[in-house]
Amino acid sequence: MFETIRWRCYARVAHRRSAERVVGRIGELWAHTIELEGYERYWKIPELAELRFVSPLGCSAPQDALLVTLQRAWRVATPWSVSNLEAGARHEFEGVASSSVGARFRVAGVEWMEFTVTDRDQNPLADGVG
Questions:
Q1: Which end of the chain is more exposed for a tag (fewer CB within 10 A), N or C?
Q2: Dihedral angle at the C-alpha atoms of 66, 69, 71, 77, nearest 10 degrees?
Q3: CB of 82 within 8 A of CB of 113?
Q4: 74 close to 95: Cβ distance less than 8 angstroms
Q5: Mean pLDDT of all residues in the chain?
Q6: Where do the DSSP E strands lie in the chain?
């Protein structure tokens, strides 16, 4: 079961409150609320911050999970580069959009964005880690 989409992006924001506004604007494009899970300055480029957030998915088939994820992703940016990280019994997909390779973002400040969708349990305690 594909429960959630994990998102990570780099955005030009001055502080956490600005990061929350960026995430809120993304949520408006998706017509549902998402919460910022992580915010920290990007050590390589201090003008950018790394933002991490999760959105609900709730799909059982991999093709449905990928389609719903791409529909959301396309509301934020185009184009996306998509890959299948794991073949076999488990399914994991990743997508990346970057302004440095021509992606256009509908949310001001976002310069790079990534999604990860997996049917693995994403709870670190479930794998014995933590």
A1: C
A2: -120
A3: no
A4: no
A5: 89
A6: 2-11, 35-41, 49-59, 77-78, 81-86, 92-98, 104-105, 110-118
Residue 57 phi/psi, 5-degree rounding, is -130, -65
Q: What three-state secondary structure class fits 98?
A: strand
- Please give the Cα distance from 96 to 86 (Å, whole number): 16
Check residues 90 and 30 and name the one with the higher pLDDT.
Answer: 30
- Of the candidates 43, 47, 46, the residue with the CA atom closest to the CA atom of residue 12: 47
Residue 28: pLDDT above 60? yes
Which residue is listed with tokens 């580069």?
81
Length of the chain: 130
Dist CA 100 CA 63 (whole Å): 29
Percentage of the chain exceeding pLDDT 90 = 74
Contact 51, 36 (CB under 8 A): yes
pLDDT digits over 68-104, tens only? 999 999 999 999 999 986 666 678 899 999 999 999 9
Phi-psi region of 103 (alpha: psi -120 to 50; beta: other; left: phi over 0): beta
